Every structure is written in structure tokens, then in C-alpha cells.
Amino acid sequence: MMASSFRDCKAWRAGGLPLSTSSNEACKLYDAILTQFVKWRNDETLGGFEGCISALQEADPNFVMGHVISTGLELVSTTSSTRLNERLASAVRRTVELANSQDISPREKLHVKAMELFSRGHFPKACDVWEDILVDHPTDMLALKFAHDAYFYMGAQTQMRDSVARVLPHWKPHMPLFSYLNGLYSFGLLETRLYDQAEKVAMEGLALTPDDAWAVHSVAHVYEMKAEVDKGLKFMESREKDWQVQPFVLRKTCKISTGSMLDTVDACSMLCRLEMEGVCVKDRWRELLQVTQPHTDDHVTLFNDMHFLMASLGAKESGTSQRLLEGLQELAKEPGDNQQHQLAGTIGVPMCQAIMEYDQGNYNRSVELLYPLRYRVVEIGGSDAQRDIFNQLLIHAAMKSENKRHQKLGRCLLVERDAMRPSSPLTERLMQRALALHN
Question: Belongs to which family (predicted)?
């Protein structure tokens, strides 16, 4: 039996979010999965995500919201594409069929619709539907969290912030998961460059819940964006015992964990950044390729694609790199409703080509492809800190280019960077390098 702290049928009803099932156990398991999702924690004491999902399916195999949360989680983890994964595609169809054959609430119907739209890559429309739910049900944490993740994948920074701001007044401190709103809101503030407010809101959340991983993560981002390296290191060290118990976001890779793909792309980015700085990481690329290669044909998000490409180029696996690019070019021809594939032609493909040109030492061409896109890179999703790798790539390409104008451009970009993040050790190093290269 699931712990009494989780909400049963009656508690969900009392909270104005009734669930269409007569099984109290199913309601509690739904709550347990939602709680782990919000906390970024695969809680082994509950049996983790996988344990809870299988128990939920046993408790009530026809519980529509049970299917919505378990299939939805797999979809937002971006680890699999319904185009290629028949099991996942049929899980989506099954949810839709169940919803059509039962008398469920309008809110639950909307949840099914949003999940189905998201499964087809129609991210903006899925977000519209989640926002529709939140107008009438501002305390529906699943709608809020799914929308937050989808906005993140679209680089919709303002929406990510405002989506949480709109519901905040409706939440009360006694409500389950209340304190985690701070981390969500803080991240939106941070991504719209309201750093001081972002830090303040995250700290308020951490005062309530010291081990809120998303809030810790948000503060770490603030220090990174302001290039306050020492402050950031001190903060992370002082909080180590809190974030160490969060294997989900930091190092654990369970099959449907929303953290696993973020871990993978961040590992690709880390190696690429180290390589640009002149660190030899070549054996590490081979290790990482084992994880990224199976996803070559997924094309769930452009952000993922570009990072998988870094891994295949780093591991000198030119066949895989070529296949990834050609697959993307193919999807760009007939994108349908898929928002990421619609952007593939104008942003995804040229950026992948720029990364490949850089890898081949064609810095001139790399600059020509990247420079016109620099203010559109936000559309591939991720955070400012993650996307900074493309700013760095452009600067490195410009500095290494034979073209004198490009070299000048590289120096201009460094001046611009210095204005936004004064006293950044990275900018300092790059400026020194530019001087050494071009004198």
C-alpha cells in the first residue's frame, strides 16, 4: 500500500482536481509519480518511477490520467520518438482510446489532447492546451510542469516565466508541492535575465525545501550567467548534501528519467567546451557515443540533435554524423505539425553544418553559417547557459578563420560578451588568445 501522505480519490476531489478512478491506490500512485517528477528525484523508497508506474497500471489499468502521466513522462524525457518507437506510439493511441471510451472530466480530456499533440512534436499547440487547463485549474501541477518542460524545449523563455507567474496567487502554503513553485518560477526569471529576482525566489524556495534540486540548479545558473564563479562554487559546496540526494537530475539514468537526456547532452557539451579550450578528451567521446548513437534517427529536438552530432564528430564516426544530418534534411522537407522539424530547414540543418565545418577546420564557412543565426539559436531550446556553447563555437571559429573580417568579428563578439558578464575568466582567456593569434 502506498503511504498515507499521498492523495487518495477524496483528497484529489477536495483539491478541485478530481481523478476518474475509484481506486485510492491508483490516485496515490499518480501523486507519487507526480511528486518524483516535480522533485527531480527517483525515489527508491517508493520503488522509483518504474515501480510506481507498474503498480499504477495494476491498481487500475484503465485509469486515463495514469496513462497520461506515465506516457507523458516518457515523451517529455525526449529519449524516444513515436515515429520510431511503436511501443510508445501505441501507448499514446491506447490513452486516446481509453479517454474516448470513458466518461472523464473536461480537464482530463484536455490532458489527453495535450499529450497527443506533444507526441507529434506539436509543442506550441500542446502548451496552449496545458495553459487552457491552468486557466480553470491553476493548481494542476502536471499541466504546469509539462508546459514548463515544453517551453524549455522551444526556448520559449518568457512563456516559461509567465506560465508560473499566472498561477502563483492560487497556490497556498498547505498545498502539496507548493514550495517547488519557487524553483520553477525562478528558472523562468533567470532565463529572462532577471537574475537578482531569480536568486531571491529560488532562495525563498530553498528556505522551505532545502533539497529542491530545481531551485539549487536555478541559483547555480544565476552565478554562471553573472560569471560569479567563486560565489557559485561556494554555494554548490554549501548545498552539497542537499543536491547529492538528487540522483535524478545529476547523475542517475533510469529508463524514463527526464534527467537522463539532459545529462547526456550536457556531457556532450562539456567535452566540446573542453576540446575548444585545448583539453584532449578523445577517449571520452567514444564512451559517450555508446549513449548517443542509438538516438541518431530520433530527431525529437534540434537541441538534442546538435549535441549528438558533437559526440559522433568527436568520436570520428563520420557515417553517424552524415546520417544524422541527412535524416534532419529529410524531415525538414515535410515537417507537418512538428515544430522542431519546421525549424530544421532554417536553423537545425545550417547549425549542424556549421558544427561539421568547424570540426573539419573550415572555420570560414562555420562563421558564415553560424553568424546570421546567432539571435535565433534560442529557438532550439535549452537554457542560456547550455546554448552558450554556440556563442563560444562562433567566437572560436571567427578567431581561427583566415578571413581578417572574421577575426575582427571575433574580437567584437568578445567585447560584447565582456559587457554582459564582466570579469568572466572564460572571456579573459579568449581575449588573450585572440591577441596572441592576431598580433
Answer: Belongs to the TTC38 family.
pLDDT digits (tens, 9 = 90+) for 278-314: 999 989 999 999 999 999 999 999 999 999 999 999 9
List the chain domain ranges.
1-165, 179-256, 258-438
- DSSP one-letter string for 251-263: T---TT-HHHHHH
Q: How far apart are CA 24 and CA 385, in angstroms?
A: 42
CA distances from 185 to 144, 180, 426 (A): 11, 9, 29
- Hey, what CATH topology would domain 179-256 get? 1.25.40
pLDDT in tens, 183-239: 999 999 999 999 999 999 999 999 999 999 999 999 999 999 999 999 999 999 999
pTM reported for the whole predicted model: 0.95
Angle at the Cα of 77 (from 34 to 197), degrees rounded to 5?
70
5 φ, ψ (degrees, to nearest 5):
-70, -20
Q: Identify which of 139, 145, 146, 144 has the alpha carbon closest to the alpha carbon of residue 123.
A: 146
CA torsion 223-252-163-173 (nearest 10°) is -90
How far apart CA 64 and CA 291 sit, in angstroms, is 32
346: CB partners within 8 A, 6+ apart:
376
246, 230 contact by CB (below 8 A) = no
What is the gyration radius of the CA atoms in the chain, in angstroms?
A: 22
For residue 248, what pLDDT is reported?
A: 46
d(CA 111, CA 231): 41
Cβ atoms within 10 Å, residue 62: 15
∠ CA 188-194-197, nearest 5°, is: 90
Q: 3-state class of 160 per DSSP? A: helix
Q: Mean pLDDT score of the chain, rounded to an integer?
A: 94
Whole-angstrom distance, CA of residue 293 vs CA of residue 312: 7
The position carrying cell 529529410 is: 330
The C-alpha atoms of residue 50 and residue 59 are separated, in whole angstroms, by 14
CA proximity to 264, closest of 243, 232, 290: 290
Contacts of 417 (CB under 8 A, 6+ apart): 391, 395, 424, 427, 430
Inter-residue contact 424 to 418 (CB < 8 Å): yes
